[in-house]
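To whoever picks this up:

The parser on our side crashed when reading a file containing two proteins. I've narrowed it down to the boundary between the first structure block and the second sequence. Both blocks are reproduced below exactly, byte for byte. First block:
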Amino acid sequence: MQEMESWSWPPRYDNAYRPADSSRYWFPVRETMNAGERDRAIVQRLREVCDYAYNSCAFYRNKWDVAGFHPSQIRSLEDFERRCPVVTKGDLRAAQHRAPPFGDYLCVPESEVFHIHGTSGTTGRPTAFAVGRDDWQNIANAHARIMWGMGIRPGDIVFVAAIFSLYMGSWGALAGAERLGAIAFPFGAGAPGMSSRAVQWMDLMKPKAFYGTPSYALYLAETAMQDGHHPANFGIERMFFSGEPGASVPGVRDRIKQAFNAEVFDCGSMAEMSPFMNVAASAQSSMGMLCWQDVCYTEVCDPATFERVPYGKRGTPVYTHLERTSQPMIRLVSGDLALWTNDRTQCGRTYPSLPQGIFGRIDDMFTIRGENVYPSEINAALSKLPDYGGEHRIVISRDGQMDELLLRVEANTELNAKGESALEGFRRQVAASVHAMLGLRTTVEVMKPGTYPRTDFKARRVIDDRDIFKEMAQRVQSGTA
């Protein structure tokens, strides 16, 4: 087997290393080697990671003992995937309730924790992420490596337009830019008036690279035009995104590329799985996301059985850290939906890929008249329409016993100026486009530009009113209405 660059457990990277600027790859051997050879190295690493976790924390030791799994049983990827039980976010929340604040899956002393991040807790108990100092360096190295694959180079200004808070994405992008030797511009997001200031700073500094969410990039393009700037004049060459589906959706990606005249890269997995770019686009932005298997081992599995699905099929990604020592995630179920392939890549890297990125969370899916619908699919259909104003809302309601889908869609300013007949034509066009993509008939209302607020974080566009109908029905039945 070929020797892989910086391949050791625990990981120890040379923080001064950088390839020649002309090199397409950060680690040429690891990224282009025969996939079967790499898999054999990953099997050994999985044994090492699982042995470390088994001996370092009660969470995995107890879970695996109950399941009859031991790290010594790993002799192939199939052994690992068949024998090792999956971990869910519910398991992590229970562990942190049992052993606060970091759970009994923390594998290092609390004194070694370097960064604390976590969920906001808006849908339940917050989940705390404890990242050790060595892990933070390894995250920075992994992100620098992947950003190199996007074409970002030392000295490039990287404009980070994402919230600096518990959210891991902005911090990971910053750490990667710093490790790469780029000029980090941690602008942030979230404060009133910040978008106009972002436009001013981008016009002044002319950054080569940009990080944020797809929704916010489109909002910044709108803001720039309103403030008298053209976003293509900022000089941004590469834009990479996470936090929500979109950068692999052709309509959304094309709108961003057209607005900024830049290459668009999709990346991101789960905050628990940082380095979040472990699933990321490479030098060819049209290919979706690569699964960087030697950083985080990815399986795409049936969401009911958690058995690997064949290439070319949809399933939920299941992730395993290969470089984390503080809170290693081993077979963590993402709850997302993706299709994976193992086709030859244009960039020469020998990793599987998610050519259409992440469709969205499985629990974000809703069912209308027996059809499963993902919000990202509606976003894709609308983003292909030239008169789309950039925002919409999906309203799910019920008329009698039948679920109904209502789309409230902004038309752009130019179309609004053309009068009612043009708006009626757009309404029919939206209905036809959604019907062609989803096979569903939907009611469409055309809204004025600016009806819905833009976001500097993850867009929330679905309003499910069916609970209102259920509540009303219960009240009528009980006589309290």
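<<boundary where parser fails>>
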Amino acid sequence: MTTLAQRWRTHSSLTPLAGFAIAAILLFAVAPAVLSDFRLNLLAKFLCFAIVAVGIGLAWGRGGMLTLGQGVFFGLGAYIMAMHLQLADAARLGNDVPEFMELAGIRELPSLWQPFASAPVAILGILLLPGLIAAVLGYGVFKRRVKGAYFAILSQALAAAMAILLTGQQAFGGFTGLSDFRAFFGFRLSDPINRRMLFFLAAGTLLLVVALVRQLMHSRYGELLVAVRDQEERVRFLGYDPANVKILAYVVAAFFAGIAGALFTPIVGIISPADIGVVPSIAFLIGVAIGGRTTLLGPVLGAIGVAWAQTAFSEEFPSGWIYLQGVLFIVVVGFIPAGLAGLWPTVKGLLEGRFRRTTADEPSTHPPAPTQPSTEKVESR
């Protein structure tokens, strides 16, 4: 008798396709049908966090790099998009500078803003700049064999420095940041249909990012990345440079964070230093840890779940959420290191063992085969 576990292993190759199909149905059909426009926009915001989490899962879960500074790359993508949207609104109104600059007394457009008036340049900046900066930082850090807590502290310091720098720059909105965007590449953001378009864009981007990371995890590079995490010196002895392996994962994570930040800006309608500093960077990490950093979908579900919990609980307990978040992180790290997704292999093993025992205890439904008479002749003496 074929057990359920055997059938599951037989059709395991179809599981990823089925998972992507279910996720696509939930995101593109079920969510728009059952959620209000406000809740759908809120889910789109959570999907941006999930995109960042997928990159962290690759760099931290597979590569062992505790990235506490993803807010830097998230902020780069977000601010580049915000700068382009502000310049596009100003051009539509016939102004030389955005409205917030006029209120701040800035009459001439800063030179750093000028290239991003072009939509292609802004898109290229979002796609290339976070990865390029990550490559430079990674080269300087990993080639010097900086790792562990030192790398985590360095990446967190970069996020703090960027937030402080932007807070003191009136040309970037200062502490309040950039907001009041009217259109997104010609589409009015006040139109509910266009808001749904942004949700579909975020959902499609998340599915593509997850598919890309899955291919990386199941490739030779994915195996090499895990080997570097577990036995870096042995990998170096085999002739590979662990620094190059780490740099690629770090760049991919930064690339995802930049795209997520660019989507976050029109979806939420504001970007400020508070969204890219140390606290948001740690929040990204907590979602990945709770969901399961070594799995593919764990970071996604963890990021969405933590963001949803923050929104739900902060409405009831504004001052208590940060403590609850800390308790969740301590519990997961201390008692469930693999995260909530790490519980599935344990449950699966118990189910398979139960099915095997059930099959072994079942009586046979087939009658025993009759004994064939012996055709050998016994010779008498």
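After patching the parser it read the second block fine. The longest helix spans residues 242-268. Confidence is low (pLDDT under 50) at residues 374-381.
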